[in-house]
């Protein structure tokens, strides 16, 4: 099962490189990627706005639950002469630039979902998108955190973590350091 | 008839020596008993006082004391008036003779260089660079006879010369166009919460809020129980770029410097600045109507180093009204230099007060100032090349100069156009290639251009021979391979460092027309004559009385006369020293930069009003109006004044305010920030307003230290001091004005009791802002009564004002001397006294107004003679 998943992921990464070296293949492709910065449902609009500013990339679908998005573009047109490993880096740079570094793109996660653990932390903070971004970034950069959401109005932060690499106390410490109040459970 | 004339002539000859000799008989009878070698009272041995120029100053005092009746002491009624008059007349002649001998030995007025202020103004006007900063880099000028433009104070050293070279280069760099077209005009809207600034940071902590449609911005709720975290995340998320207004509760302080730092000037020039301001009352999350009109200060800040942090040097642009819940658009043009930005301060809010409570903004109720935005547009050029360039190179065309192995001339040096400050979002508009002026006939053009420039720079026609010398410099540089611009620049640089430019060149005796034009323009503009004034001088018409009167009037009314107002008051009334002390925060917590700036604005506006309305000299010490803004009106307890702009306000009957004597600026300058003393205040009044400077204190006398604990009053301390006979003579003269001014504290507030940080009663808040904590107490009562040396008594400041305002002639006489010293650049001499008296008499005949007095001075021989 794991091998199949990895194969699928690798395939999805290599799809954009089809046509590299070819003269003019105008066939658009659809690719799914993980999106960073998608920490609340309300951020979907921001993501659409950001992609609207990226030439040649069409945002087809957002999967908020998994923090993923399906993109459509013509590789030869958007990434001419790009090596396979460069494509996702360039996509990431384009989205970061369009979103002032509040969104990013990375490969689909390699750890199967059933191996991940859903956790919830009661937090306190300003009901403000930027504060939520700060809290999100505090936990998301930790090793083992796959996705996260923040909602200060509801007072909760959720995350999918790899239990082998992260635990709730690690997240709480990072949040405290950032200035987020951790409420008693 | 012939015999009668001859007899008169012979009598005059016979009498002349006696009229110019010491009145020895008078001295024998009235003076020697105390002032001989044995008794030597007051340190004066009149018998052995030399009758030569070295003792000139002492003889003037002997004359003045006898003339005033002060000497012989207590014998005023015993000395027959005729004896006194004869002695004074004789002494007068004797002193004049001494002065003539002194002048013959030393010369009357030394040649004087431009002061720093004059230097900067002259270059600004010469090159049409109205905002170039130069004086800050020049060595400080000295001061003599109360002013820095006196030849006795204006020495010159190698440091000056080195700085003049640098300043000339800086001015020429700015003046010379280096591109064929003007830099593109930048239009930029800046939020006060611009990234990397202080405001964004304090918004996170609740010392301000973001507002949309006069309500809290839903995307950035006010910080309450929780503060906003991570300024960078907010900047990336665009929290401060969404068009929201910034409402500030916090005054500038040591760690908070609000700047509009997204625009950092690259190109010097005129910029249009527009900002929208309003005020509100913040009430734990609600926006309500404000307590009144608040005031925000805008300033020009010069970024130093890498531009980070705060506390960079700044100059105040002005205070701008922020009416309650109603946006007010302020639109003006100002000159900006490279690295300069606009700074902001919620000026009318209480300094030191902020919202750092547990609930931050959501727990705070108080006044706030909102800034919607600041628009900046520029550099604005009416023509290109700019006027500064045309003064140097006329209409010569600009061409791209080729640089390479084949080029026969050296190209001028150019600096790269670049944004030096990382926070500046505006970018340069570089030009490709090196552009410079081109001449087909370099030496002919140099001769023509220098002919015009030198006459303006030297403020008089320039001999052909002198011009040739400068053209020869150009020729030398051209031969050496410089391009035309560089070669001519050498000549301009040399001219700007030459004595002809740096010094006031005045002929001995009567001034010629050009020297008179310069004297007038430096008097009222602190700068060179303009084209009209120079033209009248060139046509020989300036000496005509009516022309001179009309020109004097024109100069006074010109906006450039504000330089005179600021420079003269800065020295006569020592306004330059306004920031020399910071009032003690415990004793005077209500003091703020806004109050201090308002103090200075009042004094300047009042002087301007005296000039404009030609008011008499009594207004120097007593007035029925004041020049106030809301800040000062509240400080003075005068109701009904709103807003930051200073305007004429009628005073309620009995108010001591208005005149210079009781203006907060002077009261602060004559204090030490903690306490007041009648001695320096009295000395200031005697010297600056009444023209009777007291003797300097003996070297071995220690200053009296006031008791801030509130146990002993300064008057009690002084009484002990005055009981010493040696001290009494001087203190009897200078203490009374100081006693009257004891009614005012160190920041010019009226008081009936001294403030104390020790003993005393709880102090009422009065007009102090409710957001300012009060820690002082009320100590002993103030006693403002006193007695003048002539026996007249006063019980209050108002009675004192009445006494000295009655002697308008004395006040006018002193003002005449102050104007004369400032306008001519030399002290008034003993023999000038008759002319001064005549000027005063003429002015009084015409109503005694201050502007009339200035006209009479300008028409006088005193003013028109070196």
Q: Rg of chain B from C-alpha positions?
A: 32 Å
Helix and strand composition category of chain B: alpha+beta
Pair of chains with the largest interface and how many residues each contributes: A-B, 20 and 17 residues
CATH class of the largest domain in chain A: Alpha Beta
The coarse silhouette of chain A is: elongated
Low-confidence stretches of chain B: 5-18
Give the beta-strand count of chain A. Answer: 8
Number of contiguous helices of chain B: 27
Strand residue content of chain B:
5-15%
State the helix count of chain A.
6
* Oligomeric state of shown chains: heterodimer
Total number of beta strands of chain B: 23
Beta-strand percentage range of chain A: 15-25%
- What do we call the CATH topology of the largest domain in chain A? Alpha-Beta Plaits
> Which outline of chain B best applies?
flat
In whole angstroms, the N-to-C terminal distance of chain B is: 40 Å
Mean pLDDT of chain B, to the nearest integer, reads 91
Unreliable spans of chain A are 1-23
Overall description:
The complex is a heterodimer of chains A (185) and B (866). With 185 residues, chain A is an alpha+beta fold. Chain A has 2 domains: 4-106, Alpha-Beta Plaits (2-Layer Sandwich); 113-180, Alpha-Beta Plaits, CATH 3.30.70. Helix content of chain A is 35%, strand content 25%. Chain A contains 6 helices and 8 strands. In chain A, strand 2 and strand 3 form a beta hairpin. Chain A is elongated, with a radius of gyration of 18 Å. The termini of chain A are far apart. Residues 1-23 of chain A have low confidence and may be disordered. Chain B has 866 residues and is of the alpha+beta class. Chain B is 38% helix and 14% strand. Chain B is built from 27 helices and 23 strands. In chain B, strands 2, 3, 4, 5, 7, 8, 11 and 13 form an 8-stranded antiparallel β-sheet that branches. Chain B has a 4-stranded antiparallel β-sheet with strand order 6-12-9-10, with no helix packed on it. The longest helix of chain B is centred in the first third of the chain and has 26 residues, at 81-106. Chain B starts with a helix and ends in a 7-residue tail after the last helix.
């Amino acid at each position: 099962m794991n091998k199949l998943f990895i194969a699928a992921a690798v395939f999805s990464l290599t799809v954009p490189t089809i046509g590299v070296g070819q003269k003019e293949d105008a066939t658009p492709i659809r690719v799914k990627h993980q999106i960073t910065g998608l920490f609340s449902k309300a951020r979907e609009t921001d993501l659409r706005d950001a992609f609207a500013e990226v030439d040649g990339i069409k945002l087809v679908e957002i999967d908020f639950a998994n923090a993923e998005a399906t993109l459509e573009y013509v590789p030869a047109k958007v990434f001419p002469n790009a090596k396979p490993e460069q494509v996702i880096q360039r996509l990431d740079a384009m989205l970061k630039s369009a979103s002032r570094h509040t969104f990013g793109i990375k490969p689909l996660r390699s750890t199967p979902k059933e191996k991940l653990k859903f956790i919830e932390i009661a937090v306190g903070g300003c009901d403000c998108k930027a504060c939520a971004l700060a809290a999100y970034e505090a936990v998301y950069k930790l090793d083992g955190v796959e996705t996260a959401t923040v909602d200060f109005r509801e007072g909760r932060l959720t995350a999918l973590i790899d239990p082998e690499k992260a635990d709730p106390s690690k997240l709480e410490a990072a949040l405290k350091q950032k200035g987020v109040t951790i409420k008693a459970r | 008839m012939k015999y009668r004339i001859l007899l008169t002539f012979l009598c005059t000859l016979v009498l002349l020596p006696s009229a110019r000799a010491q009145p020895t008989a008078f001295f024998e009878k009235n003076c020697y008993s105390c002032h001989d070698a044995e008794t030597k009272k007051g340190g004066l041995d009149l018998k052995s006082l030399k009758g030569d120029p070295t003792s000139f100053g002492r003889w003037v005092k002997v004359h003045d004391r006898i003339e005033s009746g002060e000497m012989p002491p207590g014998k005023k009624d015993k000395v027959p008036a005729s004896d006194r008059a004869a002695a004074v007349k004789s002494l007068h002649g004797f002193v004049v003779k001494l002065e003539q001998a002194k002048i013959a030995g030393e010369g009357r007025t030394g040649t004087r260089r431009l002061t720093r202020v004059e230097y900067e103004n002259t270059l600004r006007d010469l090159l049409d660079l109205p905002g170039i900063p130069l004086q800050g880099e020049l060595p400080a000028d000295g001061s003599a006879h109360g002013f820095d433009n006196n030849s006795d104070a204006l020495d010159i050293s190698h440091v000056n010369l080195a700085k003049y070279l640098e300043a000339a280069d800086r001015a020429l760099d700015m003046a010379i166009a280096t591109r064929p077209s003007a830099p593109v005009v930048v239009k930029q809207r800046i939020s006060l919460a611009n990234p990397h600034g202080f405001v964004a940071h304090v918004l996170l902590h609740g010392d301000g809020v973001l507002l949309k449609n006069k309500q809290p911005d839903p995307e950035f709720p006010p910080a309450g129980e929780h503060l906003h975290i991570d300024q960078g995340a907010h900047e990336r998320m665009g929290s401060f770029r969404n068009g929201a207004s910034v409402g500030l509760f916090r005054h500038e302080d040591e760690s908070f410097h609000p700047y509009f730092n997204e625009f950092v000037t690259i190109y010097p020039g005129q910029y249009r600045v527009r900002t929208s301001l309003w005020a509100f009352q913040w009430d734990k999350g609600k926006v309500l109507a404000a307590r009144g009109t608040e005031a925000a200060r805008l300033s020009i800040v010069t970024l130093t180093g890498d531009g980070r942090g705060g506390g960079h040097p700044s100059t105040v642009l002005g205070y701008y009204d922020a009416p309650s819940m109603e946006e007010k658009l302020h639109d003006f043009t100002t000159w900006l230099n490279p690295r300069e930005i606009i700074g902001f301060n919620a000026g009318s809010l209480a300094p030191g007060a902020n919202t750092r409570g547990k609930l931050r903004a959501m727990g705070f109720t108080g006044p706030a100032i909102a800034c919607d935005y600041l628009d900046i547009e520029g550099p604005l050029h009416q023509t290109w090349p700019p006027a500064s360039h045309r003064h140097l190179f006329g209409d010569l065309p600009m061409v791209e100069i080729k640089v390479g192995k084949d080029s026969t001339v050296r190209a001028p040096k150019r600096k790269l156009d670049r944004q030096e400050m990382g926070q500046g979002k505006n970018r340069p508009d570089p030009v490709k290639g090196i552009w410079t002026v081109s001449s087909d006939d370099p030496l002919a053009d140099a001769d023509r251009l220098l002919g015009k420039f030198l006459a303006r720079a030297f403020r008089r026609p320039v001999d052909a021979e002198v011009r040739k010398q400068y053209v020869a410099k150009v020729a030398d540089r051209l031969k050496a391979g410089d391009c035309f611009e560089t070669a001519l620049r050498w000549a301009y640089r040399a001219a700007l460092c030459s004595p002809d430019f740096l010094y006031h060149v005045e002929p001995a005796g009567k001034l010629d027309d050009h020297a008179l034009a310069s004297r007038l323009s430096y008097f009222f503009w602190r700068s060179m004559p303009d084209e009209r004034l120079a033209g009248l001088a060139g046509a020989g018409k300036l000496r005509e009385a009516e022309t001179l009167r009309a020109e004097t009037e024109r100069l006074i009314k010109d906006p450039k006369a504000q330089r005179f107002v600021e420079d003269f008051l800065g020295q006569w009334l020592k306004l330059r020293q306004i920031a020399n002390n910071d009032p003690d925060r415990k004793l005077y917590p209500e003091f703020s930069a806004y109050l201090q700036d308002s103090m200075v604005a009042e004094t300047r506006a009042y002087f301007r009003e005296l000039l404009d309305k030609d008011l008499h000299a009594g207004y120097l010490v007593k007035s029925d109006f004041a020049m106030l803004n809301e800040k000062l009106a509240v400080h003075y307890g005068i109701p009904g004044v709103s807003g930051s702009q200073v305007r004429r306000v009628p005073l309620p009957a009995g108010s001591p305010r208005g005149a210079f004597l009781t203006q907060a600026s002077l009261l602060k300058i004559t204090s030490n920030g903690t306490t007041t003393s009648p001695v320096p205040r009295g000395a200031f009044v005697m010297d600056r307003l009444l023209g009777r400077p007291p003797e300097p204190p003996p070297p071995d006398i220690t200053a009296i230290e006031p008791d801030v604990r509130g146990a002993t009053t300064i008057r009690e301390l002084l009484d002990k001091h005055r009981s010493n006979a040696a001290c009494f003579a001087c203190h009897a003269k200078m203490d009374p004005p100081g006693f009257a001014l004891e009614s005012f504290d160190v920041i010019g507030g009226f008081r009936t009791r001294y403030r104390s940080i020790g003993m005393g009663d709880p102090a009422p808040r009065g007009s102090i802002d409710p957001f300012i904590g009060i820690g002082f107490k009320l100590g002993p009562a103030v006693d403002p009564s006193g007695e003048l040396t002539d026996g007249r008594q006063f019980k209050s400041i108002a009675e004192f004002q009445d006494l000295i305002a009655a002697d308008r002639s004395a006040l006018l006489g002193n003002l005449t001397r102050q104007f004369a010293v400032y306008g001519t650049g030399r002290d008034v001499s003993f023999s000038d006294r008759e002319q001064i008296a005549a000027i005063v008499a003429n002015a009084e005949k015409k109503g005694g107004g201050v502007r009339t007095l200035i006209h009479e001075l300008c028409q006088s021989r005193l003013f028109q003679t070196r």
